[in-house]
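Appendix C reproduces, verbatim, an entry submitted by the partner laboratory led by Prof. M.T., so that reviewers can inspect both the input and the predicted structure.
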Amino acid sequence: MLPAIEARALIYQGILITTNIENKLQLMNALKNSFKNDAIEDAFDIELRVFLEEIDKEKVPTNFTSFYNKYIEEDKVELKNIKINNKILHQSKLINYFKEEGSQKKITKDLNDSLKKVKKDKKYFFSKKDVILVEAFKSDGIKVLDKYSNLYEINESEMPSDIQIFINSGDMATAILRIVEVIGQDELKDIDDDTMYFIISTLNQLNIDKLRNKILLKVLSLKV
């Protein structure tokens, strides 16, 4: 009897707090079906994989093996096909950080060295995807030197007010599910940069790094 987003938020919270693996998988399946019923089934796939990766495959009940295998395997090949282009900031070797490679100290140096080159290159256009990349680093505590602070500006009004209210009130489940609804059935690569900015900004503020990193690797990097 609840509105769809409130019902999903309750199921989502259940996934977060449930320790029994079978019950957790039942809730994941229920949430997946809820999105399917509203014709936005694919929008939940990335977050679903994040949940599934936290479960040991050997502990998956046999009645959920097919469900588990279907969604856990789909993006492994894609992550292997990332191509580096150091001429563009958001396609450079910096994105390897989001594959959990390298130390924070090294990425701090690499980021500031890259920003130094960008600042010297008067022809370089600092794109919204570059902004998304740098803001994700800053969210993780990576120090950007003050002399590079004028490379771009942040427009706080780009964040939808309802999502910001959910974030400020600590309602992580509803904030995430609103993001899923925004994505809908769109391919991530087809979402405009302004929308992707507030999606990543939401995940930054909620400290949901695993989901954010998967999205960043899909939308920022080149693929071969």
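The radius of gyration is 19 Å. Additional entries are available on request from the coordinating office.
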